[in-house]
Amino acid sequence: MKPFAGFPKAKEACLLPWEFFDELLPQVDDFAELKVLLHILALLQKQKGWPRCVSRTQLRNDELLQRSLASIGDLRSLKDVLDHALERASQRGALLRLTVRDGEQAEEWFLLNTERGRALLRDLRGSSEEATELRKRLGTSDAAAIEVRRPNIFSLYEQNIGLLTRILAEELMEAEATYPEVWIEEAFRIAVESNKRSWRYIKAILGRWAAEGREDGTFKRSSGEVYDPDHYLKGEYGHLFRH
Fold first, then answer.
1. What pTM did the predictor assign?
2. In sequence order, which residues have a C-beta less than 8 Å from that of residue 61 and are 6 or more positions away?
3. Which of 39, 41, 93, 147 makes the best surface tag, with the fewest CB within 10 Å?
4. pLDDT tens profile 193-217
């Protein structure tokens, strides 16, 4: 193996947020995932404008990335190694993804999971203006459909609360089978905004909605009642969620 000659005097540098080293890196346990994630970070920093994103096809055709993944010595094909790494990085919450369907063609795009990236995906669900701008950026037709993949409950938990345990994973799977996706996403959002990052609090929200009802994103309470996030752990149903 040819030794590395060392870094030259750099005119430009690839910058990484401290959260990459403090929070994300200790969790990454797959070498291919780490290589793919670092490669994507470098590619996105070279891009201009917004949004900064890279497609699965671009990554599959990237010769430098192919050489990097080939050096791992994995028995799987490079395509399978890349696909698995992208799936792990997305499920871990490092990457955001969306699918653009233009006629018979479908392409998956990846963005870094930043505040701006999350805002874009939220806007795409309700704003045709954002979708139009994205179509222009990606060079697709005006009729191209944009699909935002919703995170599963495991991803929501790990992104917003912390590491999973086996027992908790069983509870999350039960909740995912019990409550609508939009309820679960909204309950996580309320918990984060209220700085109540615990499954107990989220479960209390879902349980109260199931018991008292929820329509169009609102709760069945009197119109003059002041909203108090802590009310999910109070009252008649609070005892159900204290374990």
1. 0.64
2. none
3. 147
4. 899 999 999 999 999 998 888 754 4
